[in-house]
Amino acid sequence: MVEGRKKEKGYYGVCAIGGMLSSGTTHLAFTPLDVLKVNMQVHPVKYNSIASCFTTLLKEQGPSAFWRGWAGKFFGYGVQGGCRFGLYEYFKTLYSNILGDCNRSFVFFVSSASAEVFANLALCPFEAIKVRVQAQPHFAKGLADGFPKLYASEGVFGFYRWLVPLWGRNLPFSMVMFSTFEHSVDFLYGNVIRKTKAECSKTQQLGVTCLAGYAAGAVGSFISNPADNIVSSLYNKKADSLLLVLPLDYFNIL
What we know:
Mitochondrial carrier fold; mainly alpha; 10 helices
């Protein structure tokens, strides 16, 4: 029993480290695209297309503008990824033991939601700095000067001011992503490869994981995109409350 628990803890630790490294490095690599996305969300009139946003930022702020907020993405999403994947596996085991296999989709949903609650608590301070740094060039250069500046102006509350909208963005994403991933894996093994995971080679297992992960990320991102617009607007004080920002972003979408 004790040995089994040690193995479980080791497995959760590996999942957390894997999630931390994969999420941190992936978000770091896509920092330039994230800079374009955030600026287009916050300043839709000035930046009405990817091309105009790219050329205007390059002209006004130089090439370094596309790497603004890189530290917030690397460390913030690294911590979030560690909590998201490590805690997801922990909660999946916990809820599966309690509920059994009677409703696997429900287990996936509640496990991912539980993990994401804690993951966003870890991410929120980094996201608060990252979005401001990307959309407000004069706010701060990065985490080192952004954290004390935000703390001095808004206190601890400033780091978690928009935690609920962040949950509103990431909870649906995580729930849809993990559920899509799990069902995609089952579908690929059962209907495409027609073998169990144990019968497949490491290359086949990796291929299944990559395909399922791509599908999960694409579907999850599509679901969470409207809420992502709202979070960017709130962090940059485009509106002072969720009730005000909802109609603004609704008309931007239209």
